[in-house]
Design a protein that fits this description.
This protein is mainly beta and 98 residues long. The protein is built from one helix and five strands, in the order βββββα.
């Protein structure tokens, strides 16, 4: 499936090492290399961690296609209603290539 319809829209990407990145998809190619603008990384903490979950701003960000596990559109209305500092969750494992 082509990601071309997602260009200039807000997407969420989960990388092969389990990181969660959200930003505006500026460009993509046939190898799934992605260029994101206004990128933030969401660091979701487990429930037993006393620190709050955080969002780290990265700005312009390039993700190599081999590191993209999932890419999907963000429902911006729903996303805006969530206080991400209060969200808790388990660690997403990395991708295992066999």
């Amino acid at each position: 499936m082509s990601l071309q319809p997602y260009v200039n829209k807000k997407v969420l990407v989960i990388t092969a090492d389990g990181r969660t990145l959200m930003g505006d998809l500026l460009s993509c190619d046939q190898l799934t290399n992605l260029v994101l603008g206004q990128t933030v990384e969401r660091v979701i903490r487990p429930s037993d961690d006393p620190e709050p979950s955080t969002e780290v701003s990265h700005g312009l960000y390039l993700i190599r296609g081999e590191n993209v596990a999932i890419c999907g559109l963000v429902d911006e209305d729903l996303d805006g209603q969530i206080d991400w500092t209060q969200v808790r969750g388990g660690v997403i494992g990395g991708v295992k290539h066999v």
